[in-house]
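Structure request: Cellobiose phosphorylase, Anaerocolumna xylanovorans DSM 12503.
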Amino acid sequence: MQFGYFDDARKEYVITTPATPYPWINYLGSKDFFSLISNTGGGYSFYKDAKLRRITRFRYNNVPLDLGGGRYYYINDGKEVWSPGYAPVKKELERYECRHGMGYTKITGEKNHIETEITFFVPLDFNGEVHKVVIKNTGNSNKNITLFSFIEWCLWNALDDQTNFQRNLNTGEVEIEGSVIYHKTEYKERRDHYAFFSVNAPTAGFDSDRESFLGTYNGFQNPDAVLEGKSKNSVADGWSPIASHSLELSLDPGETREYVFILGYVENDLEDKWKLKNVINKTKAYRMMEEFSTAEKADGALKKLADYWEDLLSGYTLVSRDEKLNRMVNIWNQYQCMVTFNLSRSASYFESGIGRGMGFRDSNQDLLGFLHQVPDRARERIIDLASTQLEDGGAYHQYQPLTKRGNDEVGGNFNDDPLWLILAVAAYVKETGDCGILNVSTPYDNDESKAAPLADHLKRAFDHVIHNLGPHGLPLIGRADWNDCLNLNCFSLEPGESFQTTTSKDGRVAESVMIAGMFVYIGKEYAALMKKTGNETEGLRAEKEVHEMEEIIMKYGYDGEWFLRAYDDFGRKVGSRECKEGRIFIESQGLCIMGGLGLSDGKAVNALDAVEERLGTKYGLVLNNPAFTKYYVEYGEISTYPEGYKENAGIFCHNNAWIMCAEAVVGRGDKAFDYYTRIAPAYTEEYSEIHRMEPYVYSQMIAGKDAKRFGEAKNSWLTGTASWNFVAITQYILGIKPDYDGILIDPAIPKEWDTYQVTRKFRGDIYRITVNNPNHVSKGIERMSVDGKEIVSAVIPFAGDGRVHEVIVTMG
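Returned structure:
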């Protein structure tokens, strides 16, 4: 069942009913100011940091769903009260439409011959959210209505806002000036920052106190002021400050009115005299309001936003005979990659914006999907991440985006984290040719006295694995590897010892075959990068260490038909035929084969066959099988989930991409693309009532075959699934991969494909690459030409002339 449709020409998903299976959201913002907005206007806004600079309030896990706060509009037309976006009043509309586009959302509602269209967006380089409201009388008689706006202020720190009521209910402070309501709570004790909500027209009234506007025991769906048709002109003094305007309109038949509302944030660096006067400096706010003083100015900013996204999405474009594949590659997958770049895992409808900042592992992997769009910002992100690294090569697992400081509460000891930095830097250098990044002086733990060139950070990340090996010579898993829930060092149980009597011991020895596979895969990238930048000695050393790890994996990490997952703290196999539950895991199969293990003797193919046989489902590959049916204290959190959910045999979409890549490595393009279509959002649209999440972006997890709600997704938007699936389809399946000296062409496609064309921007040049498959093979290149001249290498040499180059590839 579908709840909307793709409008590819406009790069929009059009939702045709407010009753979607779950709130379907979009993200507004591209740099510092961000907003989450659902298809009925729910969500919130923040500046840089969803925890420390939360601007509007939102209540997660609310009842009713998605009525925890938002940017709400109400219309009192004399007969009844309704909302153009359906919520929060929930009166049935005669027409409803929500268009989620690239950085904007347009919601249209019509009732009683009043059509209201609201376009929400965050303009480029603007610290605020703009709402362009267009109201039209579609009837044959005059209409007298009152339009009400509404937002609720968060008192900046989202965690404190939700917990410290004894203080916060006394601190709310606002200021009203004309059609502007200023939120200046706590500005006196901190730097001079404030927010405002304005409209570019005279108002009939306002409210800034929530209880006055709603009524003490009313909800968002039935505010007193709206029901009465008149604002209370309340001024908040403590309690819960809000911002609401009322505008009285008289519309002739066919008449249209346009308004611009601005939700803005201002941060001043002022002398103390402003604070001593207890007055905020509104100069920046005035400029922001003037910037969007008319609807025409808002339209101009929307056009600039559209041009911005058109340019970002033009870096990699595909023309194929598969409409769904085209929209994923050209529009939605790249869009989601940019959103994950901006937010990592910090703020979605599944992440509160409080518990997680920027993930070290997460952000390094996310970079793989967006660096071709914004290489300069990718460079900045790499330095930010490396600056949180620890001197021993380890890393804080997370850092706060506002302070860029490592999160001590989460700490480090996730032993896969350091390697992802190497992969990110190698990918960056391949994309840009900027080897100079390795010479950038970069601090450890944000301490400039401990700064060293970025190359030193990579060496310590590489050596962090070598310095933390277990009894078999495999890498120690630490607190966890990529799978945070596989906690093999949580407890140590001796034979016959019960959980109640166990105590933690020093000298954890649990080992990860997955990290070992990563070390081989990423270690080869490290060695190549060192050689490319003139450090032949380090490159050869790295190759030697990688080769030794390859031998160890094949001796201790292969279980006869597939790769083991790990060894626990007692040296017992995890992910083995010997295990009753959790006999096979997906992660090590993908990463070991991506690293080239088992290719020459058929072991890689055997492992991939086992993946399909044991992990395959119509909705994707489950993470492990059989699912854990009871709690295993020695495995930790993974066994706490019910069967089929999250890490316990759920379909973890992130690592499905590794299997796509692995299938491409062994040359099975049909299977690689088959796996791609099982989880790619555009292909799930037809069963949205089962999938539930947005049909235009990836989710982190889909309930597996053991789950009671098989096929149901959760945790959409902010997931490494976005970047890895973009890598899988563009670099491994379509086979257009940036390399140090040019673009490597190495497709692994379905045999039935005849042809496709990719236009790829690369270091200022444009390469128009046409791949023909007359012999209907999955892998292999018979010949290739660049600008009419045949070349022997599979790498298109980088021209560096800023021109368009025609590349013809014939597979065979």
